[in-house]
Amino acid sequence: MIRVLIADDQPLVRRGLALILGPDPEFEVVGEAEDGARAVALARELRPDVVVMDIRMPVLDGVRATEELARTLPDVRVLALSTFDMDEYVVAALRAGAYGFLPKDVSPEELGAAVRIVHAGEAAVAPRLLTRLLSAHVRTPAPVRPAAAAVPSGMTPREREIWQLLATGLDNAEIAAELDISVSTVKNHITGIFGKLGVRDRAQAVIAAYESGLVEAGCGSG
Known about the structure:
This protein is of the alpha/beta class. Helices cover 50% and strands 13% of the residues.
């Protein structure tokens, strides 16, 4: 069973999310918080597996609450929520340690699937949505040519190539087809890329690609 804490400043939203997740035997809603500070306090007390965290809340916003949880309770995984799918705060939440992001108008099925993905330690962000977000809200160093982008020491040319394709929104199967290699080979390279970048997941690797200048705003696919 996946233990879930819901944090949102709107009671109706909290109740709606609880009603979606509660009846599913795979989930247990262990608590609800009306602001980020309360979310952090309840997470310390209840130790949920996943916190469904609204980004914009009073007292302590969702970004700072996510940062605090990532620092003090790394086993508690955050799924960020926002009313707007192009919210600049989403990028900040992913940087802070959120494992995924959903707009609030998602279907019940999408919410449940995202909680499961985050619980498994994967990034629950659609690649093309992420590239749109970063294109809108992450400034790359200027002027920077992709060939001159900052690449971590020890990263191979093939890893750099896969990192760049990943950052433009391609999934593993699409990267494999583009490079004519197997999906398992792509997965192995991506594991190495994460280690050399010092990032935890795909979302943070994409952010790093934009911030380094490897990928420029506006070049994501979709």
